[in-house]
Amino acid sequence: MAEGRTSAERVRQALEDLGRSPDIKQFSENTRTSAEAAAAIGCTVAQIAKSVVFRAVGSNRAVLVIASGANRVDEKLVAAAIGDRIAKADAAFVRDKTGFAIGGVAPVGHAEQPITLIDADLLVHEEIWAAAGTPNSVFRLTPQALVSMTTGRVIAIR
Q1: What is the sign, positive or negative, of the torsion defined by CA atoms of 105, 107, 109, 115?
Q2: Is the pTM of this model over 0.90?
Q3: CA 144 → CA 38, 95, 148, distances in Å?
Q4: What architecture does CATH give domain 7-155?
Q5: Strands (E), 22-136
Q6: Average per-residue pLDDT in the chain?
Q7: Would you kindly state where each structural domain of the chain is located, as residue ranges?
């Protein structure tokens, strides 16, 4: 992670480095929650790829679960998928491991590479929207692009 870069710049650069043309939308209103993001974008809550960060207890690594905004993450399924117990991640852990504030955690551009799991329910949509590094920015992508750019494993999270 380059020092002095904003979170939004890191996401833009990470997307460009992956060969993607960043289509980042900035909103004056907050898009921190799935419902707020969907209302601002004009899509369904299910099309929001929300980032939920946990802490793997054994390795102390960040576990990034990219879930449909309509779903609640089943922590037992996540723990089973990674083969480690998980704990809730506080704001300091999220910032330290990802480089992002809660509410703006993007799927790419992390300070440290997280263990990434992707909600299988996202794959039914033609397009989805993910946080772009700040609580009021998002970018559009396909579920297939999300899997490709994160090298995340697709699982059932509910």
Answers
A1: positive
A2: yes
A3: 20, 27, 6
A4: Alpha-Beta Complex (3.90)
A5: 24-26, 48-56, 62-68, 86-88, 115-119, 128-131
A6: 94
A7: 7-155
